[in-house]
Amino acid sequence: MNFVECHEEPIHIPGYIQSFGYLIGIDAESHSITFFSRNILDILNIESSDELFNRKLTDFPESFQSIIDSDIYTSLDKFTRRENETYFDKIFIDDKEYHFSVFKSGGYIFLEFEEVLINPNKRISNKYDNFYTIDNQQELWNHLLETLSKVVNYDRMMVYKFMMDGSGKVIAEKKGDTMESFLGLHYPESDIPKQARELYLKKRKRIFSNVDAETVPLLSKTEKYIDLSFAASRGMSPIHGQYLKNSGVSSSFSISIIIDDHLWGLVTCQNIEAKHIDLEDRVQAGIFTALAANAYSSFKSKNELNYRLELNEKLSHLKTDFLKHNNLLDSLSENKTEIKDLPEADGLVVISDENIVTDGITPDYETINTIVEWAFENCENTIYISRSFLKDYGEKLGLSENEAGVIIYFIDRDKKEMLIWFRKEFDEHINWAGNPEKNIGVFSQNGEEKQIVSPRTSFQIFTENIKGHSKRWNSRNISSVHAIRDLILESSHKNYIAIKRLNDELKKVNEELDSFSYTISHDLGTPLTVMKLNAQMLLGNLADDSEKSKGKIHTIIEEIDTMAEMMHDVLQLSRAKHSEIQLETLKTGHTIHKISENAKMTYGSSKSEIIIKDCPDVMGDKTMLHQVFLNIINNAVKYSSHKDQPKVEIEGVEDGSAIVYRISDNGIGIPEEEKHKMFKIFNRMENAKKFKGNGIGLSIVHRIMKRIGGNVDFESNKEGTSFILTFKKP
């Protein structure tokens, strides 16, 4: 009998699917049938499964005609060009309507079907912008659950956040009156093991309709293990099925919350009775969850940026005070309270040879000297961080509850200079949804009995008391310590001027990265998935004689793909840091006309007039050039749109060795007292606050023009504004 840990269970190759689905796998090159679910024979006019193997669907026109005639199948090579990207359509088989999903994975093209279900209780319109108006984390996740309940509505719906150790915590919940609340409870890592988390990152929507339903085996003469990672109907593992039964539910639906390409958490829905959700509703639930994740990421980024600005301001004051003194010890001693408070510590000790300076709650001098000796003997790195210092070394070093957590920074080992921040013990209680200890059980898998960590049978609250720990040192605390370290190095180094120049250069690079990162999440952050999925579904719902409409929708999908590629280019650019840019001769006319047309539709009115004159070629980077004209032209159209006769003029002229573009509008103008901060990020003029925007566009333009060797300037009065873009001449 083999023993298998939870994280070793091969849940991506169960060998079967759920009963709501139907699956056919064809070879990606030859299009011959390689495997299929046994229940495919129930809906198609096929007498024997043997006659399907190594044949093509086109060999059975009577059985597969509706599939063969579908738009996706007729252009199969085009639609399956990208690995693991799913395309949707609808077809009829024997007067029943089915969702038809197609994706390519591992050398096979998967054709997946499930019956269309009408949701009479659906109570929501396709409104996708509400999430971005919420500036509170808890309200955001509560709003997501409230929104999803109008689409899928399970007995219990939760937002589940992954912790750093792989465990999870329920941070938001919506449930029926008869359901027990799990809000605030923790779940051990084994409940969602590593390979399950990897699958949630690949396949972001996962439904188990009925834990008691019979599974449907896959039939194949050549493939023993078929990877179903991206199949919507992939069968559940017997371990997970038992877990659901133990928790008293018969159906579950999960949606991944992806933030910065990492699995941040899940929306987890559970229902007492068996329940299946239509594919379109599952897709819409996924869209809402992606929007909430994007809104959360934007919310966190703004908060982080504000924190960085506050930290820089505090460090600026500290730097001024540091330079008033002739030696480092005096600088640290005079500013000890500020240095203690930056990482939110309870106490600070400054060590300089035989000198000891303290602030806040600190140990006695004997204990301090013991900690210092231990640090020099055991800490190899410049900075040592621990929240379990009392638990790990309390008895050995004679520590009290006031030294539960420490950060130790070695300024200069030879001079015996160091800083030690302390945090007192935090009385922490973790409420687990059942005892997190592992139990061993016996399960049968593919005819073989195996010992495996079995799912928990109890979900009653189990409280674990954590002793000897302080509150966790978070990323902001650690960043502030690094900032203090940099300040000390800058202030005490012999080559102060050279380091200051280097820091200024690094600051500029970081500001560029901030601008481009924000461009991706803001200017280019429109959920393209929403548009593409809705366009594909609309395409599938059109009548066969709607060729003109289908052509237009195909154009929309192509434009979305173009935008996705541009997002990828900008992301690569932001990651390149300060690498050289390959400038090239670029034609601007098409870009300017296209941006102008879109701006007029988005921000203008029927009265808006855009006059485009000469558009000479310039030297630049294609992606950057698009961003420059996009921001400037959009602003010009937007801020002139309230005029009786809104007007924008765009003209480029040759001026010696440069090409100068002037984009002029008759809009609101720029107040004299605000002109000095026009290119600062998040700056918004008082007279512009009635227009939608976040005040980052001009900052991005300014960064880009400097980076490509050009310049941006402006002239403005009450009659309007002209932005002047100076490029290198080809």
Helix/strand structural class: alpha+beta
Arithmetic mean pLDDT: 83
Largest sheet, spatial ordering of strands: 2-12-4-3-7-6-5
> Number of helical runs?
19
Explain what you see.
The protein is of the alpha+beta class. Strands 2-12-4-3-7-6-5 form a seven-stranded antiparallel sheet. Helix 5 (137-149) runs antiparallel to helix 8 (279-322), helix 8 packs antiparallel against helix 15 and helix 14 (496-523) crosses helix 19. The longest helix is centred in the middle third of the chain and has 44 residues, at 279-322. It is flat.
List the helices and strands and how they pair.
Layout: E1 2-4, E2 16-17, E3 21-27, E4 33-37, H1 40-43, H2 61-68, H3 71-74, H4 76-79, E5 87-93, E6 96-105, E7 108-115, H5 137-149, E8 156-162, E9 168-175, E10 186-187, H6 194-202, E11 205-208, E12 216-220, H7 238-246, E13 251-259, E14 262-271, H8 279-322, H9 328-334, H10 336-341, E15 347-352, E16 355-360, H11 365-378, E17 383-386, H12 389-397, E18 405-412, E19 417-423, E20 428-433, E21 439-445, E22 448-454, E23 461-466, H13 475-492, H14 496-523, H15 528-541, H16 547-575, E24 584-586, H17 589-602, E25 609-612, E26 618-620, H18 622-640, E27 647-655, E28 658-665, H19 697-707, E29 711-717, E30 720-728
